[in-house]
Amino acid sequence: MAQDGQKGVAYQTVDADYFTKRGLNKYAGVASLWALGVGAVISGHFSGWNLGFATGGWGGMLAAGIIIAIMYLGLTFSIAEMSAALPHTGAAYSFARTAMGPWGGFLTGLCENVEYVITPAVIVTFITAYVVSIFGLDAAYSPLLWIGFFVVFVALNVFGLELSFKVTMVVTLISLAVLVFFWVSAFPNMDFSRWALNIGVGPDGAPVELPEGGGPWFPFGFAGVLATLPFAVWLFLAIEQLPLAAEESIDPKRDMPKGIILGMFTLIVSAFMIVLLNPSVANVGTFKLSTSLEPLLDGFRAIYGDSGVVILGIVALTGLIASFHTIIYAQGRQIYSLSRAGYFPRGLSVTHGTHRTPHVAMIVGALVGLGVMLAIWFALGAEKGSATIGSVLLNMAVSGAMFSYIAQAVSFILLRKNSPHIARPYRSPLGVPGAVLTIVIAVVTLGYQAQDPNFTKGVLWVLVWFAVAIAYFAVYGRHKLVLSPEEEFAQSGGKSEYRTH
């Protein structure tokens, strides 16, 4: 056992078989990485973002989207640089481990863990809402649908890396095609002033519908813009998962930055189009979308009527399925990397003997996400749970993401300052100012997220998970670390060559 008293951790010696049982295959190129990044986010263009209309109106949503896009540009350029310099599966944990030591790496990984365990849960609630609406099912059956979707898509991710990436490419391309089809359909049916500007402010400060439209762009003022920031995050959330595929990328130092940046600009175009067109369609409108769980389906219904609602609904599901599938992939790799290094129980990082995928990590992550969903469902009661679970889970996912973004931006600044010797095949054009901007916007977003009445319900669960995990690491995990590629690189001060054992 090797001690590192200065950092308060100890490394245990493992036999050669340890890493053999935790091997990954290489497959992904630029196109696969682009699909993984866009696919992870694209569900946010189908559902979730529109809830921000209730706090900011149309103009508030647009302005919040621009601010959040700036935050993500600062973040993605920073992680593009770090992922090429530190091409490890650990991603955020790896960056923070090298920049801030074991505790910094662990806490950053913990924040990201909340995001990737809870985000699939959020998405499956939206998938279920679509299915219930399409087929007229009783919402009481929602938990059975959750379980069914988790079983199918965890299985698809377990049975081979190549299969997983091919499914990702197909559903991502179909999702984008669906969005483009909607945009083309919406243009001749839009009336921006009448429908997008149909939110006003009632005497009690709550949003009210303006039957003739023509309302203000910013009905809730600048405060409404800031209150809408957490919902605008849903337009880009999870693009940062791409570095988790580093050890399954053929040439991560070259391809990872390209995949991240191409993905980000694809999402910026799509986000603008959906924010402009979805509420502008006749008989839809911003006010109606402010409480809708299936905004794109509402748009299709308004254009094509109810006769084809089943087909249109199934088509509209593709974006949600794309993100659900890809974030389960990311969830598995994130848990795998922390487990392989000993921060989480080591058994979680064992990979499938035939398919070389982190099946244990994906199954356990899915069970935890499902467990949280079911606990909230039964704690609130089926009727109330159906109405609020998406918002509670969304707050949990976004809060975990914001903390991880702050930690990653801090890691970028520290690595630029303290480790200039690390080879950087790609350098962020925004540099340290871009990372600082990311931190500022993330902090403001967290502050306004805390004002959401559902925030407290969700964050309490996050704090419980943090307390349990930190206690585990403090008492046990920090004495059982392993020199995984991330740890080896960090231990050398970034001077060792990248290896995946």
UniProtKB/TrEMBL annotation:
Which cell locations does it reside in?
Answer: Cell membrane
Its transmembrane ranges are: 27-46, 58-80, 116-137, 143-160, 167-187, 217-239, 260-282, 302-330, 360-380, 392-415, 427-446, 458-476
**Known InterPro entries for this protein?**
AA/rel_permease1, APC_superfamily
Q: Which UniProt keywords apply?
A: Cell membrane, Membrane, Transmembrane, Transmembrane helix
Record bears the keyword Transmembrane:
yes
- Record Pfam families: AA_permease_2
Its predominant location is membrane
* Membrane topology classification: Multi-pass membrane protein
The organism's superkingdom is given as Bacteria
Q: What is this protein called?
A: Amino acid permease
Instruction: List the top taxonomic levels of the source.
Output: Bacteria, Pseudomonadati, Pseudomonadota, Alphaproteobacteria, Hyphomicrobiales
